[in-house]
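Final paragraph of the annual report: two paired records, presented back to back.
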Amino acid sequence: MLIRRHAVRTFSIVMMVMAAQLVSGQDYPNKTVRMVTGGDPGGGNDTISRIIMPGLSNSLGQLVIVDNRQSAIIGDILSKAPPDGYTLCITGGTFLIGPLMMKKMPYDPEKDFITITVVSTEPTVLAVHSSVAANSVKELIALAKAKPGVLNYATTGSGGIAHLSGALFAHMADINIVRVPYKGGGAAVLGLISGETQMAFNSTSSVAPHIKSGKLRALAVSSSKPSVLVPGVPPVAASGLPGYESLGITGIWVPAKTPDAVINRLNREVVRVLNQPDVKEKLLNLGQEIVADTPQQAAAWIKADLAKWRKLNKEAGIKAD
């Protein structure tokens, strides 16, 4: 009987020590960390993950692996993962925004995740085909009002930044422009270059060569302030549509209920990696502007961003394809 009581007491002590270590983060990490990302291998999210991965492995002292999955399921994967810091998700905000446009999703974007940090933001460029008779945002809006339903804008899938930027623009400007969805960003740019569509909000890297060649004309950038990625191009908000802002957000998330100590450790190490000069340069070359904020700042940002898109969805009735 004494032996049994001693064993129970010893087990309880071990469990208490393990729990204390988890809460304090002292024992984290002690095994491989999985970084789930969405999109095609070699695509934007995958590339960003692999830029961050080596430095994060060194900082944590454990192997970090990239697990590339279909964008549509990574939110479901993360919501069902144990809240222990060994499953991270690095992706754009689409997996948060997507559920706002769908009736049923297996997760709640605001209740089931905690943001470790906003890694970076990506402004888009409002570009038009060279044949479009508009040299500014004001002129483009006037043209669209004069010809309702005639101008088309190219996008990728529902909930992506190209889609949302165009929908927000149309709603705020009170114009009727027609969305033309393409299977990928490359196809959307080709559609714009060919004149199949007349305008689009595309990534800086995808349209820069065509703007330089004269096939496309850059009217504005979607960030609220001028971007170093497109020098000399004014913000939409300052050139015809006050209050406009639309940014692609890449962040790192973990399941809700992950211990604070683990969240803070991950934030500290990720921010350290993001502030390394070579990492900054590589992300800037991808059209990404580093943010690297705290979990609290990230949570406030995501909350405000979701509120904006929820309002747009309610007022404009944006739906999934």
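The closing record of the year follows.
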Amino acid sequence: MASRSALVAALIAPIVGAACILHAAPARADVTSFFSTGGGYGAHRNDSTKKYEQAGGMSFAMGVGTAPLRKVVLAGMFRSTTFFVLGTDLNLSARLATGGFARGQWGVALDVGPGWRSFGHGEYGKWPLSGMLIAGAPWGVQLGVGAQVLKLGGNDASAIGMTALLEVDLLRLTVMRQGATDKWWPNPSPAGGKYVGKLAGLLW
């Protein structure tokens, strides 16, 4: 009896496996990629002196997200911002971006997530909540305005600060880019494929 059941199972298993393979949906490996670098300015409140320390800075950010052909793209981001004479902020953020932003054209993105502040002894806050609103333009240019608030852990002071950054996203400039700029610098095979939505020429 046991051998008969084993024989039936041995015959059914390949049939079920073949059916699953034949009916499986094709996998999509298309992702949106970001890699930006630039510089700007920041001001952070020192809780001990009750004053804002101001400094120029430089930044880079990188991340990956959902397919760039969608109207809204979700991504995970890592950002490092170094403020001269102060130190470095590191952030992990979730990004919500428009499709136009992801495809290297006009659009906006919002980054929100926890950060770690390397400088000071807690008077600037150590674990802030960081947010940045980024306006994207063609050719990978983007302007970000952000803030750091609250404290997500520890006994340090709450973080209070503001940052403004002008960056170029090298992937929005190259492999992700499509749309109106193709007239000046063709990109025949953008990552994720060509956007063919309704009124595509107006929705970049």
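The helical segments are 2-23, 99-102, 170-173. This concludes the annual technical report; the extension proposal builds directly on these records.
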